[in-house]
Amino acid sequence: HRHRHRSSPAMSLASRLVNVRVATFAPSRSRTAARRGAVAPLRAAGATIVASSKTKIAILGGTGFVGSRVVELLRTAGHDVFSVSKSGGGSGGVAIDLLGPDSADALKNALTGCDAVVSCVGVIGSDDDANRLGNGDANVVAVNAASAAGVKRFVYVSVASIVSEVVGGAGVLTGYFDGKKTADVAVTESFGEKNSLIVKPSFIYGGDTFGITPPRVTKQYGDILVKVLGSRLVKSIAAKMPGPIKLTLAEPISVEDVAKACAAGALGLNVSDQCDGTDEIKACAAKMV
Question: For the CA atoms of 132, 136, 140, 142, what is the dihedral angle to 10 degrees?
Answer without folding.
Answer: 100
